[in-house]
Amino acid sequence: MVLTQLSRRGITDERVLDVMRQVKRHEFVEEAFQNRAYEDTPLPIDNGQTISQPFIVARMTELLNVQPTDKVLEIGTGSGYQAAILCMLAGKVYTIERHFALAREARARLEAAGLTNVIVKHGDGTIGWSDQAPFDKILITASAPHLPKTLSNQLKEGGRMIFPMGEGREQVLKVVDKIDGELQTQEMGVVSFVPLIGREGFSDPGSDPRQYMSGRSAVR
């Protein structure tokens, strides 16, 4: 997986490649799909969500540039796989999942993997985690309709936030840096994620979210 899907497609950060080797993706995949755990594709999990394609996990992690002392906020825990990758790179990870069952299962998987520097919360990720703010890095694994204001306010000066923005099957991956109190934004290609649902996101999931093939790079 690391050689054919990541290195050959441009992931160069050795720290990211190393943790992608270490974290066992099959432990975060539903039993029915474990024989496909290392394929170059997102896979279904409960509540109509997916575990992201390995390449997009690596790509977003590399862009986030997580450092060993960083406090990281993840919005959209899902299976817990992305959180596990972040845990191997960061000092502390806080992750929020709006589906109670997914949050519970992800917590169990992360504990089973021996990852102690992560806290899983069930709630509305669009309003962040004010009690623990500010964060050095914020990663959103669902597509927002606009730049999330509350989450931007919870980003530390000098921090970075990555998220997909847009509606429909394809969105633009945004990288936002907070410099001198201002948000500087770059666009890093086209991706496909489920919509971000919550107070400051989309109000309704609409049709079957699996149509979005969540967690996929749309440019192969």
Q: What tags apply to this protein structure?
A:
globular; Rossmann fold; alpha/beta; 220 residues; 8-stranded mixed beta sheet; two-stranded antiparallel ribbon
Task: Please describe the topology of this protein.
Blueprint: H1 2-6, H2 14-22, E1 43-44, E2 50-51, H3 54-64, E3 71-75, H4 81-87, E4 92-97, H5 100-112, E5 118-122, E6 135-140, H6 149-153, E7 155-165, E8 171-179, E9 182-192, E10 216-217
Parallel strand pairs: 3-4, 3-6, 4-5, 6-7
Antiparallel strand pairs: 1-2, 7-8, 8-9, 9-10
Q: Can you describe what's shown?
A:
- By secondary structure, this protein is α/β, with parallel strands linked by helices.
- The chain has a single domain, classed as Vaccinia Virus protein VP39 (Rossmann fold, 3-Layer(aba) Sandwich).
- The protein is 23% helix and 27% strand.
- The chain has helices spanning 2-6, 14-22, 54-64, 81-87, 100-112, 149-153, and strands spanning 43-44, 50-51, 71-75, 92-97, 118-122, 135-140, 155-165, 171-179, 182-192, 216-217.
- The strands form two sheets. It has an eight-stranded mixed β-sheet. It has a two-stranded antiparallel ribbon with strand order 1-2.
- The longest helix is centred in the middle third of the chain and has 13 residues, at 100-112.
